[in-house]
Amino acid sequence: MNQAIVASADAEARARAAGVPIVDFDPESDPAFKADPLGMILAAQRYGDVFYSTAARGFWVVTRHELCRMISQDLEAYSNRETFTFYRNPPPIFHIPANLDPPDHGKIRRLIGPLLSAAVVRKLEERARASVAKIAEEVIARGHCDFMADVALRIPAEVFLEHMGLPLDRADEITATRLLPGKLNASNDPDGTQLAAAVAAVREMFEEVVAERRRRPADDIPSYLLSQTVDGKPLTDEEVLQLCHTLLGTSLGTTASTMTFMFQRLAGEPELRRSINETPEIVKGLVEEALRCYPAIPMVSRTVRSDRDFHGIPWKEGDRLVLLLSAANADLDVFPEPNQFDPDRRPVRHLGFGAGPHRCAGSLLAQMELRVLVEEWHRRIPDYYVGDLSELTHEVSVAVRMTTLPLVVGAPAAQ
User: Fold this and answer.
1) pTM (2 d.p.)
2) Which residues of 189-209 are buried (b: 16+ CB within 10 A; e: fewer)?
3) Dihedral angle at the C-alpha atoms of 12, 17, 20, 23, nearest 10 degrees?
4) How many CB atoms lie within 10 A of CB 212?
5) pLDDT of amino acid 3
6) Residue 365: which of 122, 92, 113 has the closest Cα?
7) How far does Cα 359 stand from its chain's mean position?
8) What are the start-end ranges of the E strands in 174-238?
9) At what angle do helices 253-267 and 171-183 cross, to 10 degrees?
10) How many beta carbons lie within 10 A of that of residue 344, not counting itself?
């Protein structure tokens, strides 16, 4: 595979010499990110198109849509080998294919493409509709829910876990381990012990599944992977395990994040909710606007692969980059009135799934789950409102999640 890139040590000095703003932009440990992570990312636009953060191990930050798109598309110039760029002590996790560079990345993306194709997603849609219908009826019976725990985290698990060969009755345990990166940081897990234990727990589950599928193949993802070859060679157990781990992670908490932010918005806009049932064709645009405003992964990392001049800024091999996709999705040059939530916005040019060869492989699955949730929920629960948010905080890793969203069925009492 690819060789590691050694980070350059004088990035801050080069930033100062180039007149680039120097900022302590710290998603990992700044408490303000726990209170309003997307707001903090959007506010970073005030520092300019590119600035340098002295937080953690130091990194360049890019805010503009065109620059984020260009960097994301150029795999020859920018590596995707590191995921946790803004962590002080990044976990020793290497995701396949997410952290691969060419030519290895393309080979694995072509291999997993059929697992998340439009045809596969269509087959999963019936399961998704049944899941949302069942959950909505449970919420109606109670009259309230914690939307994150009771709805958003359950739907992707019920749709995808069996496809991954994992038992649905362990959904809570599996989901909890996948959410830990957002709960842990340099202050509460400085040596990465807790995160390593969570990764090991999920790996152990997949080890059991892979061993069983070698004996008795089934119609699921591990069985498919065990039957595949790359460059004429079968995938090793280690490669299968890593691919399963990556596919699981991209199918659970990320979509749940966008679902929850979207429903917080819908809870406060009764006219928009009514339009879902009155003009159902609005749903596709509503989902796309939610992905623009609330991308589950609002920050992505890259590493400079060789020395270059980037619009007058001297970048060196090993420089760390953080691309603020949420800020790019609010770029005035691309999105007029970006602070407005507009389901009729055209054209759809957001970077909610990233861009280029590393664009989210599960985007069709996520779009389907979001669309089905909006449609099936509002058929049953057209009116609801947000309850007590005093316990709300946010988890921030590469993904951003609300920890809770209390919803109450019905219309709020008149003030």
Assistant:
1) 0.91
2) beebeebeebbeebeebbeeb
3) 40
4) 14
5) 44
6) 122
7) 11
8) 229-230, 233-234
9) 80
10) 8
Residue from 111, 129, 370, 128 nearest 261 by CA: 370
72 and 355 Cβ atoms separated by less than 8 Å = yes
- Rounded to the nearest 5°, which phi and psi values hold at 413? -65, 145
Q: What is the pLDDT of residues 59-89, one digit of tens each?
A: 999 999 999 999 999 999 999 999 989 999 8
Three state DSSP letters for 89-136: CCCCCCCCCCCCCCCHHHHHHHHHHHHHCHHHHHHHHHHHHHHHHHHH
273-282, long-range: CB within 8 Å, 24+ apart, which pairs? 273/378, 273/382, 273/383, 274/382, 276/374, 276/375, 276/378, 276/382, 277/378, 277/379, 277/382, 280/375, 282/343, 282/344
| φ, ψ dihedrals at 61, nearest 5° | -120, 130
Cα separation, 83 vs 323, in Å, equals 12
Tell me which residue of 160, 186, 182, 194 sits closest to 87, measured CA to CA.
186
Q: Which fold has domain 11-409?
A: Cytochrome p450 (1.10.630)
Q: At what angle do helices 171-183 and 237-251 cross, to 10 degrees?
A: 80
| Structure confidence at residue 251 (pLDDT) | 75
Tokens of 340: 């407005």
Report d(CA 361, CA 380) in Å as an integer: 31
Residue 313 · residue 62 · CB < 8 Å: no
The contacts found for 101-110 with CB under 8 angstroms, 24 or more apart, are 101/2, 101/75, 101/305, 102/75, 102/76, 102/357, 104/1, 104/2, 105/75, 105/80, 105/357, 105/358, 106/357, 107/230, 107/231, 108/230, 108/243, 109/357, 109/361
Say what the pLDDT of residue 6 is.
56
- Element spanning 260, H or E: helix 253-267
Residue 379 in tokens: 């058929």
Domain chopping of the chain, boundaries: 11-409
pLDDT value at position 1?
Answer: 42
Strand partners of residue 400: 396
Backbone angles phi, psi at 336, to 5 degrees: -60, 140
Pairing status of strand 320-324 against strand 400-402: unpaired
Of all residues in the chain, the percent with pLDDT exceeding 90 is: 75
Nearest by Cα to 394 from 85, 24, 28, 23 = 28
Only one residue has tokens 């069709």, namely: 364
Token pair for residue 385? Answer: 């409102």
pLDDT tens across 94-119, in order? 888 889 999 999 999 999 999 999 99
**Bigger pLDDT: 43 or 195?**
43
